[in-house]
């Protein structure tokens, strides 16, 4: 049998195993369908591009403070494939598989990457590759760059979802539906208010995500967060008097080249950028999860008030139209909080001036949260844009209790006339199957009431319309 190149095959032959230089994707979303199509933005290849970009940006920052010679900056920028501020380097030629294998020895991919990048530039310029930085500076900056770019895509998808939810809420402002609490009919509401409530959650998550993304900082602190190496390097190039000023400016200039926020100070062990971003990503999936959970419930055969426009089928039951998009969103919403908690655990264990394992634990967790958020937001936008609403089913379900859905209203209007105990007896008989309207009509104390109006769910939706207008920004309120 031909050698497949697998690690099991090479072990069987008693020779060292190595990753192929261009390995096939290990995870394309086979077991996480919600993430299909979202991997590229946060893939190993994207992270590698961002790492190279951080190194190129650092060299350019040295040029900005007039420490690095212009020809060195130009040479490094060209060799590393610099594409412009906030853009990823392309054409740098770094070997992803080789770097992954070499990263094992030092515990991170930056160490072998620096050697590989220096080999690509002219010997006289190599000293300005990675000058004054440590591995964490480059990796943190790269992950923030990847995250910032991914968050832009998540925000765009959330905006599409918001637009679709706004349209749903306005269209169904007066569509009466049964509100449910603890799984049971409660009082009448409108589908418009339900959609507007979904909108409020999604909008708030989007606002929080944009706030977190806009403050993601670059990282530059040197070996232990003092920037001592940067001061020393600047001193050799500029003289002692200008060295400290140049070193102080360097992190801000690095951030500008990367399109990130300028850090107030190194944050090697103060991990708020990661935890705040993680919390915002979890909130995105919380908000989407609420929508998905409601759609799953409302699309049940016995309720049938909504359906997904492109529902999935069943491999065994051809009659089924499964709410596949909602199911996938829920899967992400269930996973996300645990990932967010892991980021907080890592932050709490960030000891000394460089975490020994806690920092490393962040990398795959943050990447998975970003990937889930990318897939969830895109799936949510498709779900709500194609959601099919059955107003007739909502009317049937609202009427299914024979008027008991307005029992709260009866307590306010009828109880003062017949007494609370008598009304309780009437409600109990209606719950047992007797006709509620007939029971009320037989009470002489209620003869002056318009029972049809009193029992009409559409006349007991409170401020549903006004709240819908407020949440959708409609000025008619």
UniProtKB/TrEMBL annotation:
Keywords: Lyase. It holds the Pfam family Lyase_1. InterPro entries: AdenyloSucc_lyase_C, Fumarase/histidase_N, Fumarate_lyase_CS, Fumarate_lyase_fam, Fumarate_lyase_N, L-Aspartase-like. The keyword 4Fe-4S does not apply. Residues 402-472 form the Adenylosuccinate lyase C-terminal domain. Coiled coil: none annotated. GO terms for molecular function: lyase activity. Transmembrane segments: none annotated. Belongs to the class-II fumarase/aspartase family. This is Adenylosuccinate lyase. The lineage of its organism: Bacteria, Bacillati, Actinomycetota, Actinomycetes, Micrococcales.
């Amino acid at each position: 049998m031909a050698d497949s190149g697998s690690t099991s095959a090479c072990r069987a032959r008693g020779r060292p195993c190595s990753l192929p230089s261009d390995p096939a994707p290990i995870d394309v979303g086979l077991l996480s369908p919600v993430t299909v199509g979202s991997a590229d933005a946060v893939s190993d290849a994207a992270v590698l591009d961002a790492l190279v970009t951080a190194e190129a940006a650092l060299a350019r920052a040295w040029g900005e403070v007039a420490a690095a010679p212009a020809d060195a900056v130009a040479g490094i920028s060209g060799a590393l494939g610099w594409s412009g501020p906030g853009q990823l380097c392309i054409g740098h030629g770094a070997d992803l598989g080789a770097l992954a294998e070499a990263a094992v020895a030092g515990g991170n991919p930056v160490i072998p990457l620096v050697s590989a990048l220096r080999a690509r530039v002219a010997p006289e310029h190599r000293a300005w590759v990675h000058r004054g930085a440590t591995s964490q500076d480059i990796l943190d900056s790269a992950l923030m760059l990847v995250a910032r770019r991914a968050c832009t895509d998540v925000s765009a998808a959330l905006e599409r979802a918001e637009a679709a939810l706004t349209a749903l809420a306005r269209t169904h402002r007066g569509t009466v539906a049964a509100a449910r609490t603890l799984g049971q009919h409660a009082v009448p509401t409108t589908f418009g208010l339900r959609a507007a409530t979904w909108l409020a959650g999604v909008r708030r998550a989007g606002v929080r995500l944009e706030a977190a993304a806009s403050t993601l900082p670059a990282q530059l602190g040197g070996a232990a967060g003092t920037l001592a190496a940067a001061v020393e390097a600047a001193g050799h190039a500029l003289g002692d008097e200008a060295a400290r000023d140049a070193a102080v400016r360097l992190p801000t200039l690095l951030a500008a080249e990367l399109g990130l926020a300028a850090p107030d100070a190194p944050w090697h062990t103060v991990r708020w950028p990661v935890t705040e971003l993680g919390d915002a990503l979890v909130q995105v999936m919380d908000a989407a999860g609420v929508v998905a959970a409601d759609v799953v419930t409302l699309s049940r055969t016995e309720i049938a008030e909504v359906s997904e426009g492109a529902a999935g089928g069943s491999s065994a039951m051809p009659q089924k139209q499964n709410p596949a998009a909602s199911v996938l969103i829920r899967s992400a919403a269930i996973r996300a909080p645990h990932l967010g908690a892991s980021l907080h655990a890592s932050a709490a264990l960030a000891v000394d001036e460089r975490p020994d394992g806690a920092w490393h634990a962040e990398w795959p967790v943050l990447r998975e949260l970003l990937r889930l958020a990318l897939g969830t937001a895109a799936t949510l936008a498709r779900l709500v844009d194609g959601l099919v609403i059955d107003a007739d089913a909502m009317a049937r379900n609202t009427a299914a209790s024979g008027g008991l859905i307005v029992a709260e209203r009866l307590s306010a209007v009828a109880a003062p006339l017949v007494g609370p105990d008598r009304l309780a007896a009437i409600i109990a008989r209606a719950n047992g199957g007797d006709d509620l309207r007939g029971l009320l009509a037989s009470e002489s104390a209620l003869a002056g009431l318009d029972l049809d109006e009193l029992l009409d769910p559409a006349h007991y939706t409170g401020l549903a319309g006004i709240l819908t207008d407020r949440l959708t920004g409609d000025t008619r309120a």
